[in-house]
Every structure is written in C-alpha cells, then in structure tokens.
Amino acid sequence: MDKISTESFNPEFLELARDITRLGYDGVLYSFIPKPVFINSKVQPVFQCSEGFAPCIDYYLEKNYGNNDFIIRLAFEGYDEPIDWWEQIDAGKVTDSERAVQEMVRTKFGIYHGLTVLVLHGTFAIAGISVVSKIDDADHFQKLKRDSLEVLQMCANRYHTRIIQSNEDMRFFIAPLLENLSETKKNVLRHMMSGSPMKNIPEVYGITQRYAEKVLLTIRREFGDISTNELMYILGMTNMREFL
C-alpha cells in the first residue's frame, strides 16, 4: 500500500493544509503511529502530508528513516512539548544517525526549519502534526513559531479527533500492522478480542490452544515484547476488531 497520502486523502486535511499555509508555513504532515510500527525495523510509519512535503517523505520512507527519527523517539519517551527540530539537534539531544536524517531534509529538500506539535505521546502510540519552513532564517522561524503555536495546537487537536473517529482513516495508519499479520495471527487476535478463553479456540478456528498460545507470544514479541494486557490495550485503542 502507499505509505503517504497528499491532502486529496480527505477534505478535512485540505482544510488543515490551507490553515497551515495561511499561518506562513510551507508544508504540513500528520501521522498516527502505534508503537509496534516504530520498533519494527521492517515497518515504516504512514503519513498524510501536503504536496510540498511529499517528495521529502517519499525519500524518507524509501531510505527507511522512520526508525532513526528522533521526533518519533522523543514522543514515545513521553516528551509532550512542541518539538523544534533544530533546537533539539543543537542541544545535542539526538544521535548521529538521527541528526543525519534532519541534515538530509535540509540539504536535499530545502526544509530549513520544522516544528512538531504532539497530540498523543507515551507508551503505546503517538500522533501529531509537523509544519515546516523553507526560509533559511532562524529569527523568522522563531517569530513564526511564537505567533502561531496556539493556533497550531488547536489545528492539531481538531484534526486528530477527526482521524480517531473515522474507521476509514484509522485503517490507513494501522495498515503496517495488518500487512504483517498472517490469517492465523488474525484469528488468534479475533479470538482474544471476543473475550472467549483461549481453551475454546479449537472449536472456533480449528487450531490447538498450545499452538494459539505460541502464536500469541510471537505477536507480543513483534509488537515490542509487550504483555498480553498491553497488547489488548493497543488493539482496543486502534479499534483493530474492525479491520481484522
């Protein structure tokens, strides 16, 4: 499946992109990222972005930079303040490989400044918008950030609320998780979400309880070596039942 979508994905994103442009930024991106997507080196996150952002995100995904993105890492570590990309880099809060990603963004695509506004952060999933400026002027960007931050936070929260209320949109963001699930894994998850005890799974799906428990262990490891309770939380938060 496509890993990015431009604003034609839905009219609400078109409205968001227009609002961001009116504020003085050159592009906007939104993403909802479950933690298993971040920790699995074989999986990349998916994004909605304005057209001016798309070439950069295409290249980012082609090079598998999602697992070396300090913005995503900080969000999963619980950082809840707006993230000024180069403030974090200049403060030495990134690894060499993480810095290299942002240097690529600047040199190859002329994106000199970026700001990420989080609406969801912490253990199981993150979400937010990132806005960028192609003007090579730090003072200009700092003033732009000060003048627009309150509106950016409002825009981010409003759009995120829209996403989590739509099964169609949520499917787009959790697709990387679904792509890596075999039919047997899906059946085990379906059975778990039904609330039926694992001892009943042979009657429903024709697999032994012992094998189902091994499959469940594999899923938990692939989702970040999490507990069964944590797995159930992620499944519920992403409304996975609707997509299996």
Keyword list:
Beta-Lactamase, 2 domains, alpha+beta, 6-stranded mixed sheet, 244 residues
How would you explain this protein's 3D organization?
With 244 residues, this protein is an alpha+beta fold. The chain has two domains: 4-173, Beta-Lactamase, CATH 3.30.450; 181-242. Helix content is 55%, strand content 13%. It contains twelve helices and six strands. A six-stranded mixed beta sheet has the order 1-3-2-6-5-4, sandwiched between helices. The chain is elongated and about 65 Å long.
Order of helices and strands: EHEHEHHEHHEEHHHHHH
Mean pLDDT: 90
CATH C-level of the largest domain: Alpha Beta
Q: Identify low-pLDDT runs.
A: none
| SS element count, helices | 12
State the strand order across the main sheet: 1-3-2-6-5-4
Please identify, by name, the CATH architecture of the largest domain.
2-Layer Sandwich
Intertermini distance: 16 Å
Write the layout of secondary structure elements.
Elements: E1 4-5, H1 11-23, E2 27-34, H2 35-39, E3 47-49, H3 54-62, H4 70-76, E4 83-84, H5 85-90, H6 96-109, E5 113-120, E6 125-133, H7 138-164, H8 167-179, H9 183-194, H10 201-205, H11 209-222, H12 228-237
